[in-house]
From TrEMBL:
InterPro entries listed in its UniProt record: TPR-like_helical_dom_sf (IPR011990), TPR_rpt (IPR019734)
Classification lineage: Bacteria, Pseudomonadati, Campylobacterota, Epsilonproteobacteria, Campylobacterales
Organism this protein belongs to: Campylobacter vicugnae
Transmembrane parts of this sequence: 12-32
Annotated signal sequence range: none
Coiled coil: none
This protein's name: Tetratricopeptide repeat protein
């Protein structure tokens, strides 16, 4: 019997079999790549058509840009110019055209990422998440796309999905402990559990994100609880606006100057604004404090406190700036 199969032990026959297998694998890979590219192109065309119907760019200009010999990179640059000037509708339209012209994986990844960012800035949060998901299909480990996808889920209050994205970033050794704690706190804040359970869970998160102490203070005030029951007292710099407006007094040496400025004690004041406030009121000038809120990262200014900057998305960057102003007399306002 071995006589009939002796050729299988021939080294040349083994090499022929090996090269045949390699050739079959190469052919299969080639056709798989061709069909994958075709399938990806069809998927992109469906994606573009889904959003292009709502484009504000005239059809004749869309056709012109699509037919002209302009590559996707040049169109991406043009769209970026419109995005930086605040013309998001034109930027979106041009990115969609660029996406149709893109042939390389890197080009598609770049366009999807920037298109998602424009949708996010323009306030189309749901669409932005769809775009970032498409970007991640092309490059699953793209940190920028994952970060913005998590931000989109957070804005949509899809906290579980946001936490999944943060876990994916954590696996790539990106520091996201603060963001995880903040997202869990937002989820907890919107839950239906009772007050004591919320406070207990907030306290467990406070070591990861410093501003959770402010959330706890807000929760106590919203539920008409005695703020002196708070075991971990918040930093004055993180809540001076709340404590100034609130009628209750929070025990602790850190807060004494603030309450002295409000006339509740006679402790000497070192802070300039608080000292100016107390001096003005002592001389009958009827002064008060107003507060402005500035992002320490991008310097954007807001009328209300924020945990995450709406412009640069930096977490915990809010600086509370007190200003002494003359208190308005509502009785003297003419209606």
């Amino acid at each position: 019997m071995d006589f009939f199969f002796i050729e299988y032990r021939d080294p040349i026959f083994g090499l022929i079999v090996l090269f045949s297998v390699l050739l079959l694998v190469a052919i299969f890979s080639y056709f798989w790549g061709v069909f994958s590219l075709k399938d990806q192109k069809n998927s992109i065309d469906k994606f573009v058509n889904k959003f292009q119907s709502q484009s504000n760019l005239d059809q004749k200009y869309q056709d012109m840009l699509l037919n002209l010999d302009i590559d996707s990179n040049s169109l991406g640059v043009l769209a970026g110019i419109f995005a930086r000037s605040g013309d998001f509708n034109k930027a979106i339209s041009i990115y969609l055209i660029a996406l149709k012209k893109a042939t390389k994986k890197s080009e598609k990844e770049f366009i999807f990422l920037n298109l998602g960012k424009v949708y996010l800035k323009a306030g189309f949060i749901q669409r932005s998440t769809e775009v970032f998901l498409e970007s991640i299909k092309i490059s699953p480990k793209n940190i920028d796309a994952l970060s913005h996808l998590g931000l989109g889920f957070e804005k949509l209050r899809m906290y579980d999905q946001s936490l999944e994205v943060l876990d994916a970033l954590s696996e790539q050794e990106i520091e996201v402990a603060e963001q995880i704690a903040y997202t869990k706190a937002l989820k907890l804040k919107n839950s239906d559990i009772n007050f004591d359970q919320k406070i207990a869970k907030f306290k467990k998160l406070s070591s990861e994100f410093k501003l959770i102490d402010r959330m706890i203070l807000e929760l106590y005030i919203a539920n008409n609880k005695d703020i002196n029951e708070i075991k971990s007292k918040p930093n004055l710099n993180h809540c001076i606006d709340i404590l100034y407006i609130n009628d209750g007094v929070l025990d602790g040496d850190e807060y004494m100057e603030l309450y002295s400025a409000k006339g509740k004690n006679d402790i000497p004041i070192n802070d300039f604004n608080l000292k100016l406030l107390k001096t003005a009121n002592a001389n009958g000038l009827n002064a008060t404090l107003s507060f402005s809120y500035i992002c320490s990262e991008c310097k954007s200014s807001y009328p209300l406190f924020f945990y995450r900057c709406n412009h640069c998305a930096r977490l915990g960057s809010c600086a509370i700036i007190p200003n002494v102003i003359k208190e308005s007399d509502e009785d003297s306002i003419a209606f």
